[in-house]
Design a protein that fits this description.
The structure is a single chain. The chain is an alpha/beta fold and about 625 residues long. Helices cover about 50% and strands about 10% of the residues. The protein is built from 26 helices and 13 strands. Strand 2 (about 300-305), helix 16 and strand 3 form a beta-alpha-beta unit. The termini are far apart.
């Protein structure tokens, strides 16, 4: 379909646009704007010149002004143009008003279904909001009749988010065939290979990523590997800081913020920022904190963005908070809305994980901003003041590689509701196809945490001990297939690995929280992962009274389980070497067999002095201390 704004410019308009760009390049932006305005005064009905003016303003980062001019074309001239709709959508998107951006991108595609930019941007926004299926539908339709590297790459990302890992991997490979050195495609296929346990592909890709990242850091250029991906790949805190700094280079604070604490009430006002206030591990860790905040009469605010669900945990979070603010509209309106709450401390639960909002935090939503729970690396965001930590996970050697000042919890940064009730009789082993006469070694973390070396270590244990099976409750069909291939090379029968997350009779059901904990209690031992430990999965296993065996690494993400176990008086389950970890599994199995404890091996918490109530008191006092300190530094007039 032809678009009026794709036609060639007149000689006069071509000169105006060319001259305006020259002036801008010479840093005379206002003269460029004046040139357009004077020209439009002479030709007030030249709608093509209006469009070029709007486009020029957009390219000059003047998004509000660009939108104003574009709206003149839409409202006064009534011009129906896919390109104009696209430009309006882009402006709304840059201003942070995603709902209006969606509406205009959809209109652009309605006017021209092959508008590449509109298809890519619309699908990206829908993906961020959790409407993955609709986003995939838009790009799939576009790619039926058009070849586009960018659209293929975005579709691969969406398929990954929808857990279609095979489809995502195929598309990433297709992208790399077109552009073999494309760093984003390399990084993303690496993550896809990791979660499908395609260790051969992963090794090749990570070698390339390692070189690309090191080269970029050495040259001071943009690093395309994400900080989160780097944490999974290796334990190098200094390099992770450099990557985080590179990833956040585009964040620039433009909005002036009055850092004076406005709340003079006796009660503390704390806000939690996330898009995970639903069926997500962080939500379950947060709930007991909110309940205790409520008892202490602290005012709590949930700052929710993105999509959510209708789960029981979401309802519980909402019921136990003072107020829930759904963050919608432009970035400026969101920032103003949060600031108007006069929050004392904002707790960011996302860090640099997928769909974070560091650009909001960069603009200062609250006088004090803290990173907690959702991320173990540094954000490198100068507007994040503190990070909740402990002396086990944040060592003296790694402390310097965090831009946030640590607030240390004693003995552990992790909140744990050890009094949560577990119905041990809810399931029996046969419900999940588990043998009653063998030691069941449970792996409850995502397959992306399982390295080839770690998996081979587990198989070496199975070779030595025929009385054991490994049970995976978190897997995908691709990772299962890859693991079974490796299993066969060790001469082990297929029944030594059990992949089952739900009862045999009801594979379509969804396990609620109580059922999940009851399921965990069927195991004898829980195997933790290296490089990136279990976090909430370790807490859940302990609530279910199972022993967790872990290897203590060098950085935060590889020391979380050690921190938890030490706090509970179970240092004996923490190992310092890979060989020690392997022998530890064998020793604990021998103990279970010798003492006839199959199905009844519980973690010993008799030495534990950990109390969630005491933990919370320390946590809230830490927050109050920072507020008091801030008030002293910046007293209200």
């Amino acid at each position: 379909m032809s678009d009026i704004f794709t036609e060639h410019l007149t000689t006069r308009n071509n000169y105006i646009v060319k001259r305006a760009n020259e002036l801008r390049n010479e840093e005379f932006l206002q003269k460029s704007v004046n040139l357009f305005e004077v020209s439009l005064q002479k030709s007030p009905n030249d709608f093509r010149l209006y469009f070029e003016f709007s486009l020029f303003l957009y390219q000059s980062f003047m998004y509000k002004e660009s939108l104003q001019i574009a709206k003149i074309l839409d409202q006064q001239f009534k011009i129906e143009s896919s390109r104009l709709s696209h430009l309006i959508a882009d402006s709304y998107f840059k201003l942070g008003d995603v709902n209006e951006a969606i509406r205009w991108y959809e209109l652009s595609l309605k006017r021209d279904m092959y508008c590449e930019g509109a298809a890519i941007n619309l699908s990206a926004i829908l993906g961020m909001q959790g409407n993955i299926n609709r986003a995939i539908e838009i790009l799939s339709l576009f790619l039926k009749n058009s070849e586009s590297f960018d659209a293929s790459l975005n579709l691969a990302n969406l398929k990954y988010l929808s857990k279609d890992y095979i489809g995502a991997k195929d598309l990433y490979l297709k992208c790399l065939q077109q552009q073999p050195d494309h760093l984003i495609a390399q990084t993303n296929i690496g993550e896809c290979a990791r979660i499908t346990c395609d260790w051969g592909l992963l090794e090749d890709i990570e070698t390339q990523i390692s070189v690309s990242t090191a080269t970029a850091l050495a040259n001071g250029s943009r690093v395309y590997e994400s900080s989160l991906h780097h944490l999974f790949r290796c334990s190098k805190a200094k390099e992770n800081l450099q990557i985080a700094q590179s990833n956040l280079l585009e964040l620039k604070s433009n909005i002036v913020f009055d850092s004076t604490i406005k709340n003079n009430n006796r009660s503390l006002r704390v806000a939690y920022l996330s898009d995970d206030f639903g069926e997500h591990p962080v939500a379950y860790l947060l709930l007991p904190i909110l309940k205790l905040h409520k008892l202490s009469q602290t005012q709590t605010f949930l700052l929710q963005y993105g999509s959510t669900d209708n789960s029981n945990i979401r309802k519980a979070l909402y019921d136990n908070s003072s107020e829930v603010l759904e963050l919608r509209g432009s970035t400026e309106s969101i920032i103003k809305g949060v600031r108007d709450l006069h929050i004392d401390i904002l707790i960011d639960l996302k860090g640099l994980t997928i769909n974070h909002r560091q650009h909001w935090l960069q603009e200062r939503l609250a006088p004090i901003q803290v990173s907690f729970l959702g991320y173990t690396g540094t954000t490198a965001n100068p507007s994040i003041d503190y990070i909740i930590s402990d002396n086990m996970v944040l060592t003296k050697q790694n402390k310097n590689f965090y831009t946030e000042e640590p607030l240390f919890m004693d003995p552990c940064f992790m909140p744990m509701d050890l009094d949560e009730q577990v119905d041990y009789s809810h399931f029996v082993r046969s419900d999940f196809g588990l043998p009653s006469d063998r030691v069941v070694l449970l792996v409850s973390v995502k397959p992306s945490r399982v390295s080839k070396e770690l998996f081979q270590t587990w198989l070496e244990v199975l070779v030595l001990k025929d009385s054991a099976v490994i049970w995976f409750i978190n897997y995908n069909e691709a990772s299962k297939s890859e693991m079974m291939k490796v299993l066969s090379k060790y001469g082990l029968s297929e029944d030594r690995l059990i992949f089952q997350s739900k009862p045999s009779c009801d594979q379509e059901s969804y396990l609620n929280r109580k059922e999940h904990l009851a399921r965990l209690s069927l195991a004898d031992l829980v195997l933790d992962t290296w490089n990136y430990n279990g976090h909430s999965t370790t807490v859940d296993a302990i609530i279910a009274r199972r022993e967790v065996l872990t290897l203590k690494g060098e950085d935060w993400s590889s020391r979380v389980s050690a921190s938890i176990l030490n706090a509970l008086g179970n240092e004996n389950l923490v190992y310092k070497t890979k060989e020690g970890y392997k022998q530890g599994i064998i020793d604990r199995m021998n103990y279970i067999l010798a003492n006839h404890k199959i199905g009844d091996n519980q973690i010993d918490l008799s030495k534990s002095t950990y109390s969630l109530v005491d933990w919370f008191e320390s946590y809230e006092n830490l927050l109050k201390d920072q507020v008091l300190l801030k008030r002293k530094k910046t007293p209200n007039p």
